[in-house]
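Notes to self after the call with IL:
- keep both proteins in one doc
- input above output, always
- annotate only the second one for now

Protein 1:
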Amino acid sequence: MITIIGAGIGGLTLALCLESLRMEYEIFESAKNLEPIGAGILLASNAMQIYKKLGIADKILHAGREIHELNLTDQYLRKLSTIDAYKLSKKHNSSTVAIHRGTLQKILLDSLSSSAIYTGKRLIDLTQQNNTNTLTFDNGEIKVKAMVIGADGVNSVIRKKLFSSAQIIQLNQYCWRGVCDFNIPSSMSNQINEMWGSGARMGIVPINQKEIYWFALTNDNNSHCFPKKFESFDPIVSELIRNTKSENIIYGQITELQNLKKWYKNNICLIGDAAHAMTPNMGQGAGQSIEDAYVLAQLMKEENTMNSFRKFQKIREKRVRNIVNTSRNIGSMAQLESTILRGIRNQLMRMIPNSINERQANEIYQIEI
């Protein structure tokens, strides 16, 4: 029996992978109810290739929005660079899809046949002794388990217990995320457009036939100045913000996890954000959690021992680290405030052939599974 802590995207995907391999599992989730929460999420072709193998890609595509083009623009929606996501999707025989995170979570839950998902189980302590792990939950329950997978996110309790020195890095970038019903121009209905301004940027992402997910980042956290920061952007930005109910806006500081040298200890292993939380600048946080889940499940099927954890990190670490570093660098470049530096950046971006952008994206989408 494999015990998974956390019923987020990584934990549920791991459960689905284990089911496909006829391996037993159980999930302990801190939330009392698994209700749709969050905002939008991008599932690039690398993630969708895995969901295609698991038999749920069509469900996700039907519930979300297929993305054909990824555009970086200036604040007036004038293109700086473009990636032809549709061409890459054809190459990899797998679409790029934007979807509400809560919708994806529901699809994953509905696709699982096991009822071994226990909610209202917030882990507060963990001890290891020999080959057993003692889990203590906030309701006083104590469980002794043999093999544990920590899929409990950036604030992972398991990671804190195993590797107490690991630090979450707080970056000087602050993000507002919202979802609203919006009649987007047809020319943008299958595009992601990310607009770069002065120390601020705005992303516009259609996630189904009627809803738009948007994200806005600034270099300061003054919520009162948040809408004003985007008044100079294309008018569609202010319209989206005005059309979004305040309860549908999520605010948070951008963070990443300090490079964790080891993702496992004895018979416990971390996956996803618990092991390598990254900035959202490449839309690969969920994708890398999904890849983790698939690779780890395959290895555990072969060995079902701690040796699979060692192999898992060896296979995944270099790829994940490159994406973490690239994502951070993109965020720094996107948030420039200097008018001169932004002008140079924009000019250079316009000069880079789209074929080079697509080649770099292809390296992310090309996975060995």
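Protein 2 (the one to annotate):
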Amino acid sequence: MGEIEDKEKTGKNKKMGTGKTKKRGKRWALWIIAALFLVAALTGIYIYRLVFQPISLEETVYVYIKPGNDYKQVVEQLKEKGAIPSEEIFHLLAERMNYPNTVKSGRYAIEGGMTMPEVIRRLRSGNQTPVNLTFNNIRVFENLAGRLSQQLMVDSLSLLQSFRDNRQAEKFGFNPETFPAMFIPNSYEVYWNTSIDDLLARMKREYDRFWNETRKEKAKRQGLSPVEVSILASIVEEEATYSDEYPTVAGLYLNRLKRGMRLEADPTVKFAVGDFTLRRVLFRHLEVESPYNTYKHGGLPPGPIRVPSIKAIDGVLNPEEHNYLFMCAKEDLSGRHNFATTHAEHARNAAAYQRALNERGIY
């Protein structure tokens, strides 16, 4: 009996042990499942935060994508500008959103607070941020080409070749000499990757918009066409250092034109010689043979000697009414002018100026 009881007890103990082991196993399994769930949840939260974490930028950065640039080059730019919180997540998102196969050229703004999906959507959509294209104080087409190429995707040499293409000038109703008049210095909103043809067409539209009926009527009252206004304005701007003198100088040149007098404008001689740095125009300069030399040829030169500013153009359209026929730089070399109605008065002003140059050794 004792042996039987011991066997029964042993059997019971084995069953109880097995039951406890099973319970412990279930608990461990539950703990493992819970731990895995927690890890998955935390990983999911971490990834979610990375995906939708606002990008921290001190200021808006711009991504410039040229035709032919690939996805890797775009990512490199974004990394350099600190616009990717996680490169790995960005790649996963970009692949999922099919961006590597839909790269579009352009200039794109990436602002602080955007998320990576928003960045990808902007780049993928081709939703560019326009450039405020600005140019002023332009003398020659080389200057204009250089200024525009600094702000746009096009290179300066291609722009210059187009500016000097006679067919381009004729296409827009100008000739090679008058073509600079089409470019009105201002600020224009354009896309960074705009083509040269589109840019020129835009400049012509802005020219036509600028020359509204009011300005055309004012030009007509001065006996000038819009292009002639630009030609005279270019001389006025080169002659006057200060814009408040534009209407006075414009009135003087208009007086000379109406009386059939030659303009005798020193800036046109500098243009003809090809040296705007001349401080002193000498008699040998006045003898240069050029249709731009207004000491030798009457009327206006064939084209603008610079790209005139709006202020200079408006100075010609709204000239000061006076009887001045002569002008000379002031002897204090301030850049301002003495104006005269008679040649005798002008001669005195010119003599004072020449003495000032001699005293300072300016030749």
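Annotation: Residues 61-125 form a domain with the Dna Ligase; domain 1 fold (CATH 3.30.1490.480). The chain has a mean pLDDT of 89.
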